[in-house]
Design brief:
Elements: H1 8-23, H2 25-35, H3 38-46, H4 49-52, H5 60-66, H6 81-91, H7 112-121, H8 136-156, H9 163-171, H10 177-198, E1 202-206, E2 210-212, E3 217-224, E4 232-239, E5 242-245, E6 260-263, E7 272-282, E8 285-290, E9 294-299, E10 304-313, E11 316-324, E12 334-339, E13 342-343, E14 351-353, E15 360-364, E16 372-379, E17 384-391, E18 395-400, E19 410-417, E20 424-430, E21 437-438, E22 457-460, E23 470-477, E24 480-483, E25 487-488, E26 497-505, E27 510-518, E28 526-533, E29 536-537, E30 557-559, E31 568-576, E32 580-582, E33 586-588, E34 592-599, E35 605-612, E36 619-626, E37 633-634, E38 653-656, H11 659-664, E39 665-673, E40 676-683, H12 685-691
Parallel strand pairs: 2-9
Antiparallel strand pairs: 1-3, 3-6, 4-5, 4-7, 7-8, 7-9, 10-11, 11-15, 12-13, 12-16, 14-15, 16-17, 18-19, 19-22, 20-21, 20-23, 23-24, 23-25, 26-27, 27-30, 28-29, 28-31, 31-32, 31-33, 34-35, 35-38, 36-37, 36-39, 39-40
Helix pairs in contact: 1-8, 1-9, 1-10, 2-6, 7-8
Length: 692
Amino acid sequence: MATSYLSKPETNFVCFAKVCVDVVKIPLIDILFDQIKPDDLYHKIKSCAALSAENGKLVPDQKKICYLSPPHLPDYKSFDVTLLYTLIRNLCPSLEPTQGWGIKPKATHTKIGDDIERLRLFRNSFAHGESTEINDDEFDDIWKEIKSVIQRMQASTNPLKKYELELINIEGCRFGYEDREKYKTFLGVTLHMWKHIEDEPQICIKSAQEVLCGETTHFDADLKQFDSQTWSMYWQKTREKTTEQIDTVKDKYKNSSNLRLTVNFVSKEDEGEYQVVLARKHNGGDYKLCSNRIYLTPIGEKPYFTRWKITTGKKKITINYSYKISERSPKVLKIEWTKNGENIEIKTGKYDGGGLNGGFFILKSPTMDDIGNYSCTVTNAVGSASEHADFDLPIANISTNSGPIFGSNTIITSRISSCPSLEGVEWQKSIDGNTFNCIDISQPRYKGSRIEPESPLLVIPKTTFEDKLYYRLLVWNIFGRCISDPLHLIVTGSPPNVLTSHRIYFEHQSVKLIGTVFVSEKSPAVHTVFWTKNGEKIVTSERGGRYSEVSVDHPSLTINSVNSHDIGAYQLNAINAVGSTASDTIVLDEPRICVERKENPDSSHCFIAQIQSVPAAYHSQWMVKGKDDDTFKPVDINDEEFKGSSNALPRPILVVKHNQLLKENCFVIEVQNFVGRKTHCFAGMFYLHFYR
C-alpha cells in the first residue's frame, strides 16, 4: 500500500499505465478464447511459421506459457498484452483491421481489429521519455478514447462482462510512489515487447475500392523498415476463396512494379481482394508478412435494350431499336449486326441505318433470300447485350375447345408465329376438306369472330350439324403465305332420353307419374320438360293444386285426389337443342278384367280373375244372384260351398264346389280403382241369359 499520495499529473500517469498493463488484456483474453480454444492453441502456433520458428515472433519466455504440447493447456489469464496481441494478429485473420495490422485506424474504422490496433497505439500517448506525468487535458482526451474502445469491445465480445467497471474502479483509486514505480517498470517491459513486434517491416497499400469498368487503376505500396536484401515482395489476389500470385508481366498488369500494381482496362473479372506479400527464408522455412487487403469492385453494367420493334412498310422491313447504360457505367464502344452469324455490310445498298446513334435498321425489298436470323449486339467495357429477329414465313396452328356439342358455342383459336408481323388473315371452310371457301365472319352465325392479325378467332355461337365441316386459317406476311392444317369439326349430340313409371299412394289417393330424363355423353342439356294428357300440354298451375310443379330437375308429376276426371293417356316430353323426345304412354282408366276357368280334380270349378289397372285397383268382390233374387250379393267365401275362394288382390279366386250352383246362379266380380269401377259376369247358360 502506498505511503504518500501522488500529484494529479502523476496519478494520471499511473491510472493510464495501469489500464495499459492490467485492463487492456481482459477483452483481449476473451477475444482470443472466442477465436481459439486453449486445447487448439498449440496446433495453431505449430502451423504458423512466424510464431513457431526458433527466432520467430515469440520470445522463449512467451513460448513457455503459450506453446505447450498436449495434454498441457495454456492459461490465457497469464498472458500479457503483447503476447495476446501477437497471437491474435498472426492466428486470427478474420479480425484483421480495416487497413491492416500495424497501421493506425481511421476514426470511422470500428471493427474489432481496428480497436485492437488502438489498444496497441495507446502507448504513444505516454511516450515522454522518463516522464511519469500526464497533464489533465491530455489525460482527459486519452481516457475518453479508452472508454470508447472498451465499450465497443464489451458490446461485440462479451456483453455480460463489465469491462468499463474496471476503468471506474481505477478512477476511484489513490496511488502512491510505490504504485508509480511499479507501473513505470511494468510499462518499460511492455514497451520493450511492443518494440520487438514493431521491428518488422511495416507495409500498407492504398487504392480506390471502386473503379469504372474500362478504366485503369493503381495499387500503391508504402514500405517502412524494409530491407530488399532480406525480403522478397509480390502482389496477390483473392477471389472466392482462391488466392493466386499476380504475374505482372501480363498485358493486364503492364507498367506495374514492386511498389505499384497497375490494372489496365478494369473488368468484372478483376473483382477481388488485393494485397502485397513480403517473404523471407527463416530457419529453413518461409516467413511471410502481408499488407492490408483492399477489395476492388469494378462498377458498371453492360448496356441493355429499351426498344426493339419490327415494322413492315412498302417493300421494306424496319427494326427500330434503342439501348441504354445505367448510371456509373462505361459508354458503348461498338454495335454489330449479323445475319445467320455472319457480319452484315451495311453499305452494300441492301441495308440502311444500324449505327450507334441511328436507332433504326432497314432491310430493303425483302425476298425469300432474306429469310434468316438477324442479330444486333452492343458492347461496352462490361459486356454485351443482344437482340435478334428470325425473319421467316408465318406459321399458323388452329385448335378448338374439346368436342363441340350441338347448340353450344364453338371457338376455334389460333396460335401464330410471324416475324415480321402478319399483313392479313382469312378463315376458310370446306365440305370435303379439299375445296375451301372464305368465311364471311360478318354473318350472324359467326358473331364474335375476328381476323385481327394479332389473334384471329372463329366463333360459332350455336353449333349445329350443318357446321360439321373442315376449317383452316390462311395467313401471310411480307415474305409469303402459310395455311394451317385443316380442322375437322365433329359436332355431337342427340335428343333427351325419357323413361317413365308410376307409383300409387293409397292413403292420399294420389298417383305419381315418375319421369327420368337424361342426355347421352356429349349431348346438350335438357332445357324444357312438360306432361301431356291425351296429347294436350298440362298446365299444372291451372289445376288448383291437384298437380305438382314440373321442372327439368324434378320432371315427375303427382296427381292428388285422383278421380274419374283424370282418365286419359299421359306422356312426359323433354327438349334440348337437338330435339324433343316423348315417353311411353301411361294410361289412367277403369280396371280391365279377364276371368280364367279351371276344373279341379274333385269336380269343383275354379275361377281366377286377371286384373289390369292404372291406377292400381284397391278393391275386388265376388258377387252372386239366384233366379229369384233381385240383386247381387257378396259371395260368402267362408261358406263350405265356396271354400278356397278369395277376394284378395292382385288375383281374386272363386271356387264353386258343385256344378249345380253354376246352373242355378249368376256370378260376377266387381273391381274398383280411384277413377272408377268395373263388373265382369260369368255363370251357367240359363242365368247368363237371364242376367243379360
